[in-house]
Amino acid sequence: MSTGNAGLARRYARALFAISGPRAAAYDEQLRRLADALSESAGRRFFFNPTVAAESKRKFVHAIWGQSFPALEKFLSVVIEHGRETLVQQMASAYHSLVLAEQGLAEAVVETARELGDSERQATREALDKFLGEPTWPSFRVEPGLLGGVRVRYGDRMIDASVTGKLQRLKGRLLRAAQSEVTK
Predict the structure, then answer these.
(1) Is 142 helix (H, G, I), strand (E, B) or coil?
(2) Which ranges constitute the DSSP H helices of the chain?
(3) In what order do the strands lie in the sheet with 149-154?
(4) Is 88 in contact with 75 (CB distance < 8 Å)?
(5) What gap in Å lies between CA 107 and CA 128, rounded to an integer?
(6) Which residue from 94, 118, 121, 149 could staple onto 162, CB 3.0 to 4.6 Å apart?
(7) CA 183 to CA 180: how far, in whole Å?
(8) Neighbouring residues of 163: CB distance < 8 A, sequence distance ≥ 6
(9) How far is CA 16 from the centre of its chain?
(10) What is the pTM of this model?
(11) Are the C-beta atoms of 43 and 60 separated by less than 8 Å?
(12) Beta strands 149-154 and 157-162: pairing type?
């Protein structure tokens, strides 16, 4: 996603957040469900397809959210009207960050080489809270290329305690040591 699109997605997210009031968490859940559905090929083929009429997309949105979440339906209709459907997933992510911030939680992405169990996830969250000095809301992702350990992305920082990261740092030190020996 380009920087311009990221900024645009954040502006849409802030606009929805401004009108969501006490329903912010419910809207967050609904937007994340939509973003998940758009990750699947059938959802993408329908919602992102420029040959599907905007009216068909609005009818789809109305059928799902019209009764329970009228403000969310109106928001998504505006998104469709302005041809911004491809930004919905980024809007959902930006909106989720706003909801977490309102709840006093910092968002973190935790990558591990294998799926963590519930107790491991809880222990990781507690360790992050302690290390970062604030409550966090980690999302967990499996990244087999890490080989082992953990990599955490938090704001604009990254903590890499993975086996792969350690091996890359070791490789760098060995190459620098070899270069300094050659230049002596």
Answers:
(1) strand
(2) 3-20, 24-39, 41-47, 54-65, 70-81, 88-102, 118-132, 163-182
(3) 136-142, 106-112, 149-154, 157-162
(4) no
(5) 11
(6) 149
(7) 5
(8) 113, 146, 147, 148, 149
(9) 17
(10) 0.69
(11) no
(12) antiparallel
Length of the chain (residues)? 184
Residue 154 pairs in a beta bridge with 108, 157
Name the DSSP letter for residue 145: G
Q: Please name each of the domains of the chain with its CATH number.
A: 3-101 (1.10.520), 105-182 (no CATH)
For the record, the structure tokens of 114 come out as 């294998």
CA pair distance 176, 182, nearest whole angstrom: 10
How many CB atoms are closer than 10 A to CB 65?
Answer: 20
pLDDT, tens digit only, all 184 positions of the chain: 456 788 899 999 999 999 999 999 999 999 988 888 888 888 888 888 889 999 999 998 888 887 888 889 999 999 999 999 999 999 999 999 899 889 888 888 999 999 999 999 999 999 989 988 889 889 899 998 888 889 998 877 888 988 888 888 899 999 888 888 888 7
Question: Any idea which residue has 């403000």 for tokens?
Answer: 71
